[in-house]
Structures are given as structure tokens and as C-alpha cells.
Amino acid sequence: MESREYKILVVDDEENIRWLYKEELEEEGYQITAAASGEEALTMVPELKPDLVVMDIKMPGISGVDALIKIKEVDKDIPVILCSAYSDYKQDFSTWASDAYVVKASNLDELKKAITRVLEERQP
Amino acid sequence: MDYRQRYETLSKVIKINSSATPINDRLMQTAHFLCLTGLAPTIVFYLLQHRGRRLTLRLAADSGGNLQLPAPPYSYTLPDSVDPLCAPLTSRIACPLDLESNNSDDPFRRQRPYGWSLPLADDTQTYGTMVLLHNKAFTLSDDNLQFLLIICRQIASGLREDILRKRSHKKVRRLKFLHRVGARLNISENLQSVFSQLPDSSLTFFAHSASILTIYATENLPTEIIDQGFRDNEVRRIGLETSREQTARMKFAVQPTVVDIKNSADSSYRDFFSHFSAHIILPLISRGVRLGSLEFFLDKDPKVQHLIPLEKNELELLEILAVHLAATVERTRTRSQLDLANQAAILRTRQLTISHRMKNALLAADTPDQISRLTLGALASSEGFSCSPAIYIGYQKEGKFWHTRFYARDPGSLSNDNKCPKITDDTTPLKVLTCHLLRASDNLDEKIIRDIETLKFADLEAAPTRFRKALTEEKPTIIPARFITALHSKLAEIIPASEILIIPLPGKQHLKGVILANADRIKEQDLSYITLFTDAATLALDNTELYQRLQNSLATLNRAQSRLTQSEKLMALGEMATSIAHEIKNPLVSIGGFARRLHKKIPEESREKGYSQVIMKEIERLEEIVNNVLSFSRTESDVFAPADINQLISDTAALFTREMKKLNIELKLQLTPGIPEVECDGNQIKQVLINLINNSIQAITGKTAGLEKNRLTIRSTPYCNLDKQQELALIEVEDTGGGIQEETIHDIFNPFFTTKHDGTGLGLPICHRIILNHKGEIRIQNQVGRGVKVVISIPFKHSNHHEQPVDQHRQER
Q: B188-336: same fold as B3-169?
């Protein structure tokens, strides 16, 4: 599986959260790039071509869901994991287009599992 | 007797007989002068009386001027008499008399049986005879005879004048009498006083003894014979059936008729009126209608009997009397009818006024109880309909039985100082009137309260037929009390009356109640006014019921509104809590995340491992609390409720009508009316419809060319899937947008697949997901070059068991 280092784009308006994600996920062996907003992420996606995007929903500027749709427009094969403080977005059909939905928590185990699963599904 | 003596005597006799002295004086003086001439010692006058049918000795005089009046009076009935006295009367010539052989009690004739009889006659009539009496036979010279005949003629002319004077006096007296009677009749007030005039009248009229029997009979008035015997002034009433002939005469006589009773063919009639001689019938006719008759009965008195047959002018006078009487009877009758009509009109006006006033009072009342009590009060009050006492039996819906709720009696009878004001009095304010009428059902003594509380009826349907009929006809009825007392034995005590008024108060669904009241003082024709008034009561009852229902709805609405305000407040609070929780969560995640990292770095055996453990656990606890707050504050996203699918379609389509009109697209809704409600989340279905309509509009406007008219059709139909045994609602959205290219048709439900430049590729996938969520299906029927038909099917009933397939779920049931 570890044939190459996956590039993961982390999008969150909270600097501390970005830092936490970076620290934790780099430990897992991913190559992490961070963006502070949906807009910033969108400018980075074409060049970076990330293997996966972890996206917060509630952010200043465009929301995570909108950013997700825009990213899919650029390349619909880039998987996006939505990661939000709200647990019940899971049931909302507006978020179902994401590849996974994870409730934001200090324990990142669930997020890590979701990343592994989504990346495995993308394996050709 | 010389010429001179004759001349003097003649002039004296002429002078006497042309004077106005009474007849007896005249005859006496004449006889005296003649005796003085020595022609005879005694002169006797016999005068014809009773219309010339009897000859009566009037008086005798002699030369001494002594007047001898006969006692007893001697009279001779002419036709039977062979008396020589009669000869000169028939032949009207003087003749000598030889009365010796004639056996007579006449004292003068017995004293002086010889003489001459000379007729007292003029050209028209014989009045009697003057007889010169002697002791022996004697003759009269021609001169003396001529002289005596001249004397007789003078006496006769005097007698004629007497008769004429008497007749004219009689006529004047009768005319005066008629005038007087007429005047009295004109001012008489009623029939009784008319009748009381009559005995007096007959006395005046006939101047002899007679009974008056007035018979008065018409269709409208009682048939009776009033016998007014004037002698004892006693009024007797005789049943008419005593005489058939009498009835017939009375019925058919239109002309004044005189009946000779003893010659009547009807024996019962003859016997019944045997003490009368004649019966005079004067029909009373006014304006061609027989009102009855005025009848006189003449006594069997010789003095009266000569009156029969009546003279023509007498009959005419009686006829005038009858006409007067008939007019009076007619007038009094008309007046009494007018009086009755007037009284009735006054009564009706009063009742109408009561109905009107009570209607206003009822409409101003607030509660059903007040209306019931007001209705009872107006019925019971003597100022109202005088049906006191009255009770109201109401239907108790919960207990399903009938119970007396109110009792009222005439408030006027309660106390004098608190007398009820007149309902008809417009100056009494409605409030005061209402107060007084309500009092009719207050102030009851304890016995009445106890009595009416015992009145419970499990089933009025089991009541006697007459009572039930009154209820089903739904209008006031009067029935005999015995039909009511069968309902409950106490009722007779509570309403002591022989007739009971039943007033059903019909409601919209069922009978609201029944009023029972004393009907002894009202009549059948009063019912229409009572109906007017009770209809108003029923209406008022309905109104208050509606009003109360409205009040209840208003209260519910107010409660709902306050709840809504409350929940809005809660929602605002929730939103605030959410945003706070969200703000807290991010720092928590950072703190927690880094604490976790620290924890990992701390060696197992160090004390710090325990500290970081505490921090981690506490943060997890905080995260749990924040998660709870966040999930609580958001509402459920799927709200399944029965919804009218047609309404959803038309509501959604309405959002596009303006745009479609602008784009020249015809919108056609073919909705099956009455389609059952579908259990669904209305907002999500709307979302689906918005997406589909949007797609269609874009397809229509985007197509290059098309012969067909631009049209968008939305249909709703119920459908039964026999394989799955499932009832479904079908919604079809069909456009003329040219259809979808065959190669792309398989991708259209994939997310982010789109053929439009500005499309997200999420429209149809979202629709798909929503319909799946509703256990339904979405299919595309594509006609390349023409258009697309999207068919959505949703089951009417939504199942909450997401795991179970729908068919399995149905089989279980």
C-alpha cells in the first residue's frame, strides 16, 4: 500500500486544528498541505493535485460543501472527506456527495480510518 | 110640531153635532132636544161597532133630559140577528118597529115596545140607528120623518168626523211610536237592549193585550225564540225544535205574514200556541240576508180578535218596524264583529311586538342558559304569552338523558313591588326587561327546585305518540295534558294545566331541548306568534353555540401562538447555544488533540502520564457535552407527514409560472383530483420537483430547433403495483426539450456528471437520493429529439423500517 506518499490537503480556518492534523497525519506517513479557507484550497488543488482533501464545513468565505462541489468540478476523482463539528450533517443530503463524513473530535482515530478507507477505495 | 119648532131643534142639533164635545154628550143632548119636541118619550141610540159587525146599545135619553146608560151593555151580532133593529141598517130607510113579539132583555125595549128606527148613515157608511120608543104603536107624518132623517144625517156626519179624527190620531200616534222606536233602536248598544224595547212597542202599537215573540236565528247566532210577554215583563226562551211549521215559516217567510193559529195544519204548532189567536211574522231582512224574524202573538181576547186580518197600513207600519229592527240587528252584529276583529288586531299587534322585543333580547343574550331562561320568562310572564309555569328540558349529551334545567312562572305573580315591566313597552330598556324576565326562573321555593330536580327522562323517544309527533314536527303544539303526565307523574304537579304547550328547540344535529308550558290561556292561533319567538330562541341558541365554539378556537389559537412564541424563543436560544458550542468545539479539538500528543510522549511510569490522562478524559467529556448540544439544537431533517401531492405540485409549479410565461412555455397540470395523501417530506418532494422543472426548462430553452410547441406537463395519478402489492402515487414531469443523448443517459444519476456549463451535476443525484429515501423510484423515459419524461413513484404509506424492503414489510402485515 505504501508505494508512495499520499498528498493530503487539509482545509480548516482554525490554525491550531491545521497544525494538529498536520502533526498527527504526518506521523501516519502522509504528505500534508494545509489551506485556511475554501478559496485558498481551490487555488491550490490544480497545481497540488492532492490524493485526498480533508475539509471543514463551517468556514469564513465559501463553505466546505461548496468548496467540495467546486473541487469535484475541477477533478471529480479527488476524494473529499468532510470533517465538521456538527454530527447531524451526516444525514443531510447536501453533504452526501462527499466520500466520507467525519465528526470533528480531538481523537483523530475516526478520521484516520476514514482516510485509509477512502484511499483504499481509490486504489486502482 | 110647527115649522119654527123644527127649525130651532134642527139648528140646535146641527150645532151640537158639529161641535167637538164627546160623542155621548152629543147624543144625549140631541136625544133631549128631540124628546122635547114630543116626537117620542124615549130615544135610544144603537151604534155599530167592531167594524160594523156588532150593534151595541149606546145610550137612551128622555124628554126630561135624563141620561140612562145601559148596564150591562147590550149588543147584537149582526149577521145572526133577526132583530128588526137591523132592518134600517141594511136598507138604510126608516121603519116602524113592533118589538112586543121580540124577546129581548133590552130594558128600553121592554118598557116601550113600539117605535120607529132611523138609520144613522151618510153616503159612505152606516154608523148605527136612532130608535124612537113609545108605549103604543104610532105613526110619523112625512114632515116629521123628513125632519128626523135630516137630524140622523147630522148625527151621522158628526160620527164620521169622530171616526176620521180617531183614525188620524191613531195614525199619528203610531207614526210617533215608530219614530221613537227607531230612534231608540238607533242608539241601542246591543241586541239585548233591542229586544228589551219590544214589549213596550207592541203595547203601544196594538193598544191591546198581545205577546211578542221574537225569533232570531242566523247561521252565526244561536237559534232561539225569545218570548217577551209584556204583561209580566218576563222573558222566556223557547227551544225552536218545538215547532216544525214555525221553523219553516221563519226560514221561508220573506213577506209579513199573519197566521190564524186555530186553523193551522200543524197540530204541534196549534197546541203549542193554543193560548194565542194569531201569529204575525215579520221577517228581518238586511241587505238581502235573513237575519231572523220579529213575531207577535195576539191573545184570544175579543178586543184583539177584531184586528185580524190586519189592515194594509198597519201591516206596512209593522214592516217599517221590522226594517228598523233588521237594520239595528245588522248594525249591532257588524259592530260586535268589528269589535272582535279590533280586539284580535290589538292582540296580534301585542304578540308581534312581544316577539320582536324578545328577539332582540334573545340576540343580546350571551349564554345558552340565559337564552333558555329568557325564553321561559317570556312564555310564563303575563306580560308575554301567559303560559305560566313553563319548564325547559334540556338534552344532556354526555349522560344521554333528558333533564329539567329551568323552571319559570309569571314574575308578575311573585311580588307587587317588583312587577315585571310590559314587554311591549318600548321605553323599558332591554337590559331591565331581561333582568325581570330572568327573575321568572329565579326566586323559586325549595319544593319546586326539589320537584324539578326529580324530572329526568331516560328516553323521550319512548313518550306517547302525540308527544313524539310534536317533537319530530319541530313546531309548537298544544296537546292534552294526559299525554304529558304519562312521561312523568310529577309533571302534573309542576304544570297544573289541562292542556300543555310543547315547544321543541331543534338544533343543527339533534334536538337541543323541549319547553313544556301551561297552554290553558292561549289559543291555537297564538302558536304562530309563539313560533316566531321560539324560532328566534333556537337561532340565538345556535348563535351562542357558534360563538362559544369560536371563543374556544380563539383560545386554542392564542395558546398555540404563545407556544409558538415560546418555541421561537427556545429556537433562538438553541441557535445561540449552537454557535457557542461550535466556537467552543474547535479550541476543544485543538486542546484535546495536542493533549493526546503530549500524552503519547509522556513515559508510562511518570506521574505526568496520569495528569495528561485526566486532561484527555475531561476534554472527551466536554466534547461529548458540546456534541449533545449541537445535535439537540438541530431539527430532524426528514419530516414525514401525509401531504396532498397535488397541492405540492401546484405550489411548486406556481414558482415557475412567471418565468415560463416569459420563455413562452406552456405549463400543463393534469392532476387526478382526490388522490390520497402521500406520507412524505413535503419540502424534499418540492426540492425534487424544483430540480426536475429547472432541468426541463433548461432543456426546452437550450434546444436548437423544434416543431412542437414548448410544453411542460406534470401529472399525478394513483397506481397499483400488483407485483409488490403496493399502492403508489405517480408523478410525471414531461417536457418537449429534445431529450437526452443516448450515450449520456446512463450517467445522469451519477454525482457531478453534468452536460451544462454551470451545472453542479448534483440535481438529479439529489432527486434520486430523496426518492430512495421515500422508498420510491425515479425513472427516465427518454425520446431523443422530442423530450424526456421523468416518472417518480412514491408509496402512499411510508415505512419507518429502513432496513426492511417494502414488499417484505407489506407481507408481514
A: yes
Nearest to B593 among A69, A87, A108 (CB): A108
- Tell me which residue in B596, B765, B766 faces A106 most closely, judged by beta carbons: B596
Residue in chain A nearest B623 by alpha carbon: A105
Nearest CA in chain A to B759: A73
pLDDT band, residue B807 (cuts 50/70/90): very low
Contact at CB, B627 and A24, closer than 8 angstroms: no
Q: What is the bridge-based pairing of β-strands B499-506 and B75-77? A: unpaired
Residue with the three cell numbers 326587561: B433
Q: How far is B613 from chain A (nearest CA, A)?
A: 13
Angle (CA) B746 B747 B749, round 5°: 105
Quick one: closest CA in A to B592, which residue? A106
Residue among A24, A72, A85 whose CB faces B586 most closely:
A85
Whether A18 and chain B come into contact, CB under 8 Å, resolves to no
What's the rounded mean pLDDT across residues B189-211? 53
Do the Cβ atoms of B595 and A14 come within 8 Å?
no
Q: Do B593 and A106 touch (CB under 8 A)?
A: yes
The tens digit of pLDDT for each residue in B14-40 reads: 888 888 888 888 888 888 888 888 888
Is A19's pLDDT higher than 90? yes
Among 3.30.450.40, 3.40.50.2030, 2.60.40.1180, 3.40.50.300, name the CATH number for the domain at B188-336: 3.30.450.40
Q: Which range scores top for mean pLDDT: B79-88, B255-264, B453-462, B688-697?
A: B688-697
Q: How would DSSP label each residue in B750-803? A: STT--SSSS--S-HHHHHHHHHHHTT-EEEEEEETTTEEEEEEEEESSPPS-TT
Class of domain B641-812: alpha beta
For B295, the grid coordinates are 213575531
Distance from CA of B795 to the nearest CA of A (A): 21
CATH architecture assignment, domain B3-169 = 2-Layer Sandwich (3.30)
Would an 8 Å CB–CB cutoff place B593 in contact with chain A? yes
Cβ atoms A33, A62 nearer than 8 A: no
Chain A residues whose CB is inside 8 A of the B581 CB are 85
Q: Domain ranges for chain B, please list them.
A: 3-169, 188-336, 365-522, 552-633, 641-812
Contact A86 B634 (CB under 8 A): yes
Q: What is the pLDDT of residues B138-164, one digit of tens each?
A: 888 888 888 888 889 888 888 888 888
Cα(A60)–Cα(A39) distance, rounded to whole angstroms?
A: 10
Q: Work out the minimum CA distance from A114 to partner chain B, whole angstroms.
A: 17
Residue A88: closest CA among chain B residues belongs to which residue?
B631
B752 interfacial to chain A (CB closer than 8 Å)? yes
Tell me whether the omega of the peptide bond preceding residue B480 falls within 30 degrees of 0, making it cis: no
Q: Are A55 and A35 in contact (CB under 8 A)?
A: no
Q: What are phi and psi of B603, to 5 degrees?
A: -60, 150
Tell me the mean pLDDT in the region B516-537: 84
Structural domains in chain A?
A: 7-122 (3.40.50.2300)
C-alpha cell at B759: 451545472
